[in-house]
Design brief:
The complex is a heterodimer of chains A (187) and B (93). With 187 residues, chain A is an alpha+beta fold. Chain A has two domains: 3-126, Beta Polymerase, domain 2 (2-Layer Sandwich), CATH 3.30.460; 130-182, no CATH class. Chain A is 44% helix and 21% strand. In chain A, helix 6 (141-154) crosses helix 8. With 93 residues, chain B is mostly helical. Chain B has one domain. Helices cover 73% and strands 0% of the residues of chain B. Chain B contains three helices and no strands. Classes of the chains: A alpha+beta (187), B mainly alpha (93). At the A-B interface, helix 1, helix 2 and helix 6 of A face helix 1, helix 2 and helix 3 of B.
Chain lengths: 187, 93
């Protein structure tokens, strides 16, 4: 199985169950930044409707073996359900619950729909501004590099920098934003 | 030929030029092309991990190769989840 076939299956499961979703992680980063490999398919799910994660997990059961317990990750998206593909290669699937955080909710509300020829379907991605804000908020070394890369590839002149600056001010990450911008050499 | 690692300014200039090249290349691609490259890189990396595991195990059994790749990735996940990754070089006395 290819990683795009797995991603397509996860998106199809969300669509089939009527679960509002947004693809994040390396896919969203790569769409706006510098492509790199990944080991997992990360998707944020709305909690609207009855037990959306359980229904998506059940629909993916033939393809993905999910761990029975939900994990809690304070750095990223709150609760997540982690699974591994039953066949090879053993990609990970991480389903994150949308939770009650002003930025997370706004990011989800601003998501964009796109059609991917490789996935063979339409799906949802965060905006580049929201990828940057989220990466700066997480603040791990790789996240800060990712934020700089999206800024560099998209170009600050094409981005809604006022929106980014406003969220960074709320998150206390303005210094990280300034460092990311300063880290981009003149093109 | 001078060793660029002995000249901080030259090293920084080289790093910047390499980074500029990566950014220019990404800018020249459409978003769909970049996403396609994420898929291609990921599938390629897994294939190389599989090849490497099979070579190290001295096996021609692809199932054993994938089991070994999974074992290694699971171990990396555990190390990450326990916060044992460090981003700085260990100090040298």
């Amino acid at each position: 199985m290819t990683v795009e076939a797995l991603a397509a299956a996860v998106v199809a499961a969300c669509e089939a169950e009527g679960v509002e979703h947004m693809v994040t992680g390396a896919f969203a980063y790569g769409y706006y930044g510098i492509p790199r490999s990944t080991k997992d398919v990360d998707v944020v799910l709305s909690l609207a409707g009855g037990e959306p994660i359980r229904r998506v997990v059940a629909r993916l059961d033939s393809l993905v073996e999910f761990e029975p317990q939900v994990q809690f990750d304070t750095l990223t998206w709150g609760k997540r359900q982690v699974g591994t593909t039953r066949g090879s290669p053993h990609f990970k699937v991480e389903l994150f619950e949308l939770f009650d955080d002003p930025f997370v909710l706004e990011q989800f509300a601003r998501k964009r729909r796109l059609f991917s020829p490789q996935l063979g379907c339409a799906t949802w991605l965060p905006t580049p501004e929201d990828v940057i804000v989220q990466k700066l908020r997480w603040g791990r070394g790789k996240d800060l590099d990712d934020a700089r890369d999206v800024l560099a590839v998209q170009g600050p002149e094409t981005l809604d920098m006022a929106y980014i600056q406003a969220w960074c001010a709320r998150h206390g990450t303005t210094a990280r934003l300034e460092a990311a911008l300063a880290g981009i050499p003149p093109m | 030929m001078p060793n660029v690692h002995e000249d901080p300014a030259a090293l920084k200039a080289l790093q910047d030029e390499l980074y500029r090249e990566k950014v220019r290349r990404a800018r020249a691609m459409t978003p769909e092309q970049r996403l396609a490259e994420v898929f291609e890189l990921t599938n390629g990396v897994f294939a190389r991990m599989h090849d490497g595991a099979m070579w190290q195990l001295g096996t021609t059994d692809p199932v054993r190769g994938w089991q070994e790749v999974r074992r290694r990735l699971d171990r990396l996940c555990r190390v990450r989840d326990q916060g044992r990754f460090v981003h700085q070089k260990p100090s040298v006395p």
